[in-house]
Design a protein that fits this description.
about 60% helix, mainly alpha
Length: about 100
Amino acid sequence: MNEFPAFTERTETWGAADLVGDIFGNPFHPVAFSPSWHNSTVLSLASQMYESRDFSAMPILADALQDAGCDSADVLDHCRGPGPHVRGCWVVDRVLGKE
């Protein structure tokens, strides 16, 4: 039996909120993606993460997006953040045109 049920429930709620944030981003601050950000490196990284469900390259995707001209703090911070990142991640989906 868990000695701290309230802590466990709060942690699970925060975990669910993190997943929702990864999938939907900030609905109050939508990000416009420039077509110039969709170069071969960015598309390749996003596609590989999507297909493999391995999002460990998110910081590398941030670097590639920045090299392509992305200056959106929301996008770059999300990619460089701790996650969790899952299939359906709003940045990866936007790169791949899966909106």
